[in-house]
Amino acid sequence: MLEIHDVDLDDETQLQRWYDAWAAAQAARPAGMIESWQNARVVMPRRHPDFHVDLFSVVDGGEVVGAGLVNLPLHDNLTVAYAEISTRPEHRRRGVGAAVLAEVERRAAAAGRERVLTEVFTPPGGTSPGVGFAEGHGYTVASREGMKALEVGASEPRWAALEDQVTAVIGDYRILLWRDVVPDEHVDQMCVLLGQFMSLVPQGELDLEDGEWTVERYRAAEQRRVEVGAAVFLAVAVAPDGSLVAANELRLNTHDPRVAQISITMVLPGHRGHRLGLATKLATHRALRAAFPECGLVVTSNSDENDHMNAINDALGYRVLENLLEYHRRL
Questions:
Q1: Of 28, 210, 217, 248, which is the most buried if we count CB atoms within 10 A?
Q2: In the chain, which residue ranges form alpha helices assigned H by DSSP?
Q3: How far apart are CA 170 and CA 262, in angstroms?
Q4: What's the pTM value of the predicted model, to 2 decimals?
């Protein structure tokens, strides 16, 4: 008989059993594309100021056979629940995934959420068991993205020529780079810029809203990143009038620094055409290379519709390793 057990995030044994089931379900994905245990054991127990996260396990005869995650935004997009539904491969087609999904939807509905979003990964040009599972339970594709990776050492020889391209068109814009903490004199502007992020991202049918970022909210998220051992490189473009108009943020967890991730890339529409997206990415990638030469891979994702950002990533040498399908269903 399948049982639902809440995971106590402060109990590392429970957390690792959950993680092992989750990671087993991800085993077919390319190397470097899933969170390592070294990072997860530090990051997951630390509560996030922007989200409430529930973890639960599906247990059969004492064995964790499935893992569920429900992520509830606390400040914006309050009708949405983000979810992960995982089943150990050897236990698929036995009702485990259905049990996880039912519990995800129950918790989302109990929290007053109207829609569940979940991610399914597929190899380029192929499919995966998650596609049939999601569509069989009434979920439809809201957006499609390419999951890309960059081998940092292989990309570095390209950077000088790309910087020449930036120099030719950047004009009076300036690039600033910060590590971990935004200086006080710029944090208000950073909140204004970040508050426009979702409107700039091709969303398909995701229908997610912009967030309202206060200095207090930004500093709280910043502090959590420091506490979990994240190294954050943030490059911004400053317009001639002194406003921040573009940003690229790259993060790495120092507990396992082999893989870094891009979390934000944005350029305000009125300031495009100056290669600011490329300029900010070059700045963060150079800083990463200098501070963590052992980091071999940078991971990012882009909508298939985002031609400009895809062109920048192609120029740097990113290559698609898998596809990300964002599925959703209204409860």
A1: 248
A2: 12-25, 37-43, 96-110, 129-136, 152-155, 159-169, 184-194, 197-200, 215-227, 276-291, 307-316
A3: 22
A4: 0.94
